[in-house]
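Practice problem: predict the structure.
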Amino acid sequence: MFTGIVEELGSVVALEDQGDAVRLTVRGPVVTGDAGLGDSISVNGCCLTVVSNEDGAFTADVMRETLDKTSLGALEPGARVNLERAVTPATRLGGHIVQGHVDGTGTVMSRTPSEHWEVVEVSLPADLERYLVPKGSITVDGISLTVVEVRAESFTVSLIPETLARTTLGARQPGETVNLEVDVIAKYVEKMVRQ
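Answer:
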């Protein structure tokens, strides 16, 4: 489990194609500082398992399913990625409950700058719209954000300077793909109401 509070902007070191998978190596000295084999690290919102950790970089195996259903399949060496270690019982839950299980992808549609924040509009797959409410939570590329407005096929979030400076959303441009994870509590409530 994660909180959606990005700890570090890492960078992709290498991608080794293994046919039905990719071995991904990411530099992230903060998240690798105490990471052990088998630990979970969120990479742009995708929960990955550490298979090696040395010299400030970790390696994870990314299966075809993840490559096909997330933005990780488009990564290239040098790409910046949002990194977060899994929570511990002593971790503050500064964002919201994030599983690192991507529900779908969206596309950055527009960016509207303001003096002290920026509004970003992201396309929303139709099957995820029912889980979003204004002032509710959504994870975009592993970042816990508050939904400002839910539209027919998109939603907006307002990004403060800290988020713009410390995450990949500061540089994402219209047309770029982002990973989306809706609030897991909304999914459980939906299931319970249907039964």
